[in-house]
Q: What sequence folds into this?
């Protein structure tokens, strides 16, 4: 089953310029496959897919990915994890400012992701 951060508003005195995705496969035996989609809104109603890819995460390894989202009013990250033990793959998402500092109200932990029926196209 797929999951999403939901729409994260990118406003305030220090908006995010980047979104960081941390993917950690804690399974000691099986790799997992992660498909991710990153959407942005440059207005309140215009959703656009800006990044989409699939990657294999070997057993007991991690990947740290960064993407530019500067100038957009909101963003969303969707995931689909597959493999023999998809529940062992932990994903977190953080918005960061231009200096790389995490913006606390723009973080989504694994337990805060929302399940969705499928990835949006």
A:
């Amino acid at each position: 089953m797929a999951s999403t951060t939901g729409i994260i508003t990118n406003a305030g005195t220090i908006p995010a310029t980047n979104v960081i995705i941390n993917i950690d496969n804690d399974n000691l035996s099986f790799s997992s496959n992660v498909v991710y989609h990153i959407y942005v809104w440059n207005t309140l109603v215009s959703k656009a897919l800006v990044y989409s890819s699939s990657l294999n995460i070997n057993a007991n390894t991690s990947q740290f990915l960064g993407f530019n989202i500067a100038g957009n009013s909101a963003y969303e990250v969707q995931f689909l994890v597959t493999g023999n033990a998809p529940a062992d793959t932990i994903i977190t998402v953080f918005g960061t400012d231009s200096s790389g500092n995490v913006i606390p109200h723009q973080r989504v932990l694994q337990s805060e992701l929302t399940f969705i029926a499928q990835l949006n196209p």
